[in-house]
Amino acid sequence: MTIRQGREPYIGVGIESTAGTAVVASKYLPFVTCTLRGIHEPMEDEAAKGVRERVWGVIGGRKRGEGDIEIYADVENAPYLLYPALGTMTTTTASGESVVYEHVIKRSTSSTPKTLTILYNDTQDTRAYSYAAINTLELTVSDGLATISANIISKFPTTGTASLSITEERIFSFKDYTIKFGSGSTGTLALAAANSADATQVRSFTLRINNSAEAVYQSGDASAQDITVAQFEADGEYTLFYESTTDRAFYETLLSGGDAVRAMVVTFTGDSIGSAETEEIKIEIPNFHLSDRTVDTAIAGFITENPSFVAQYDPDELYSVKATITNQTASY
User: Fold this and answer.
1) Apex 70 CA angle, 65 and 76, nearest 5
2) Which of 26, 203, 326, 331 has its CA 20 to 30 A from that of 75?
3) Alpha-carbon dihedral 183, 185, 190, 191, rounded to 10 degrees
4) Cα distance between residue 257 and residue 260, in whole Å
5) Which helix (H) or strand (E) holds 104?
6) 3-state class of 72 per DSSP?
7) Closest by CA position to 321, among listed 140, 114, 105
8) How many Å apart are CA 304 and CA 241, to the nearest integer?
9) Is the Cβ–Cβ distance between 173 and 186 less than 8 Å?
């Protein structure tokens, strides 16, 4: 008899310098869920051959890697998913510090998503997923821990080598974040107004990023030859108690031809680091509109409103989504 054990799989990640060229793992990510696997699509011979059986034979078909990874949001690990999803990162040493760094990650017109090599040990063996692109990413928090989940598309996995090394991280929850809104005649003014505004208390917040990634196949190889990305989308929603008409008025602004520009700043704040800095994940959306707004009129509970938003490219700030992460990791 064997004693079965759980919780032993682990994941290592490295950001590829050249898309599709595998690299060693630079960090092992504590994960909540992982469904990465090799996908093979057998091609069945269904030609009629005088018998009732639908399938006569089968040959090998298209293959790729695909699945989801979910981690807790923290300042050290979040960039391993946010950077590949958005595509551009610049790192500077925080002012007056020697071992505290600010990583600015954003989606701009000059950026394309980065790719990863992911090593997944499922207790039986280690599989290497190179050319791993983030198709979609979702950051969400309600009344528990904040999580980041990503849908991955990659080349078909091969045998990999990994050596587990887990470090302790500072994870964030609902009590660690604030959300601020601002309006103005341009995105820059709206963003400035949001940064200086009072925080709005919300019940939950979700940001989704969609790179519209797709595995592309070409003659001569059953494995995906390229991972392409099409249009970029960023949207989400938040929930708050219905205590004012602010969001209802903003939602209806477009109907009257008014200024629909609005900005949001979402900030997760952690422990003090260095001499005068703080662990932080700060997400800025300089220009968004509301695409929907529902009101939950639960008779036995509290009335809440649930605005859905869509981020737009902002011609003043030259991006649609930006994340600034302050931590003690020098590079990614």
Assistant:
1) 110
2) 203
3) 170
4) 8
5) strand 101-107
6) strand
7) 105
8) 4
9) no
User: What single-letter amino acid sits at 186?
Assistant: T
Cα separation, 110 vs 72, whole angstroms: 29
pTM here?
0.92
Alpha helices in the chain (DSSP H): 79-86, 187-196, 246-252
Among 151, 155, 128, which residue's Cα sits nearest to residue 20?
A: 155
Place of tokens 């011609």: 315
Q: Give the tokens for residue 309.
A: 């938003």
Element (H, E) at 56: none
Strand pairing partners for 118?
A: 13, 129
Instruction: Please name which of 157, 140, 158 lies closest in space to residue 149, comparing C-alpha atoms.
Output: 140
Q: How far is CA 180 from the centre of its chain?
A: 20
Block residue for tokens 């960090």: 27
- For 82, other C-beta atoms within 10 Å of its C-beta total 27
d(CA 174, CA 236): 17
Backbone angles phi, psi at 255, to 5 degrees: -65, -30
Dihedral of the alpha carbons of 319, 320, 326, 332, in degrees to the nearest 10: -70
In this prediction, residue 92 carries a pLDDT of: 96
Question: What is the chain's pLDDT, residue by residue, as a tens digit (332 residues)?
Answer: 777 777 788 999 999 999 999 999 999 999 999 999 999 999 999 999 889 989 988 988 999 999 999 999 999 999 999 999 999 999 999 999 999 999 999 988 878 899 999 999 988 899 999 999 999 999 999 999 999 999 999 999 999 988 888 877 889 999 999 999 998 767 788 899 899 999 999 999 999 999 999 999 999 888 888 899 999 999 999 999 999 999 998 888 876 655 667 899 999 999 999 999 999 999 999 999 999 999 988 777 789 999 999 999 988 889 999 999 999 999 99
